[in-house]
Amino acid sequence: MEEIDQRDGRTWGIFCHLGALSIYLGVPLGNILVPLIIWLLKKDDLPLVDEHGKQSLNFQISLMLFAVITAIVYVVVLMGLYLVTAAYFPRVALVFIPLLFAAFLIVHLVFTITAAIKAGNGEVYRYPLAIRFIK
Prior knowledge:
The protein is mainly α and 135 residues long. The chain has helices at 2-18, 30-42, 47-84, 89-120. The radius of gyration is 18 Å and the shape is elongated. The protein starts with a helix and ends in a 15-residue tail after the last helix.
């Protein structure tokens, strides 16, 4: 019975992490909602899912927060550049916007997939850069 719980814990732990990728399928806030739903449904039955769910949610919320802050700073900087000199505005926007999106995408994919692999091995992955909102 304990072996089945371990296997179930690993499987649902993987889903906690990979569920965050649902945002790329067009699910609004899927990166937070899917892990949250899995965590809420399974955390009391499977201790491993409790830990994986917390880790996934903390990272997804942190990354979303970082993206929003970055976007706000970016807009303020672009507005400042535009007010100072409109000549640089299009070039700066065309270069940095795709780079910022690519950086967040790569970080999200690499860390999420790494966490899912660790969950499959029964290990808990501590996401770098994650703020511990849920302890």
